[in-house]
Amino acid sequence: MGGKIIVFGNEKGGSGKSTAAVQVAIGLLRQGHSVATLDLDARQGTMSRYMGFREAHGGLPMPRRAAILPSPLNSLTDAAEADRWALESTLNDFTDVDFVIADTPGNHTGLSRLAHAKADVLVTPINDSFVDFDMLARVDPKTRKVLGPSVYSEMVWDRRKERAMARGAPIDWIVLRNRLGFSESHNKREVGVALDELAKRIGFRTAPGFGERVIFRELFLSGLTLFDLGSSAGGPPLAMSHVAGRHEARRLIDAILAGPPLRSAVRAAS
Description:
Elements: E1 4-8, H1 17-30, E2 35-39, H2 46-57, E3 64-67, H3 76-93, E4 99-103, H4 110-118, E5 121-127, H5 130-133, E6 137-139, E7 146-149, H6 151-165, E8 172-178, H7 186-202, E9 205-208, H8 215-219, H9 240-258, H10 262-269
Parallel strand pairs: 1-4, 1-5, 2-3, 2-4, 5-8, 8-9
Antiparallel strand pairs: 6-7
Helix pairs in contact: 1-2, 1-9, 3-4, 4-6
């Protein structure tokens, strides 16, 4: 048995997948867990570059890491088999770690689908707007009522069925409301209501995400995370906004580790 596989996935770019994945990976590492990172968006390579900057910084705890590029084979069947073999062999290399944190591309790829099917926990960050919500479900523009699941939710549902047919444990799906504004707004309330309705219909749970903070962009080139600030690693002086951001990251990790309520797990498996 290998460690828990946590996949960060959303077929829309700019949702903050890589940022959240890196914060969770280093947060778990700082808690004393063994961690590996897996960059499946290796062409863009945000996670890989982040970890490269981190290694160059020196003196920081590092996860084990790997990256996989999609197969270049022309045959769809051969490419799918090559992708499957690459993912399986890489995960087999990480059977001795507590957690594998996988970052997926912001589009629909065969490698991403394979990773979703392997997820013990799937974390889907969405920006707090109906633009991102549209990846999860179609909404009536007048009533704001959920009409039905959209393309990404249908893909996740198919991966859940694959897991059930293979007698695997249900995928614990977490939708992360990311880049939240700090003031209350009508749109923010409407998105929250729609997410709660959709969660009951298709079986995910929501978790608090990150506020819109400049610190995430500032830390990238240094390879630091919120969990490194205040240590001997250097970086900007620790400010109250950084402490608040670190608290948000810890709440996300706590939500991931807590697992789903029993009823949600049963519903997702049925």
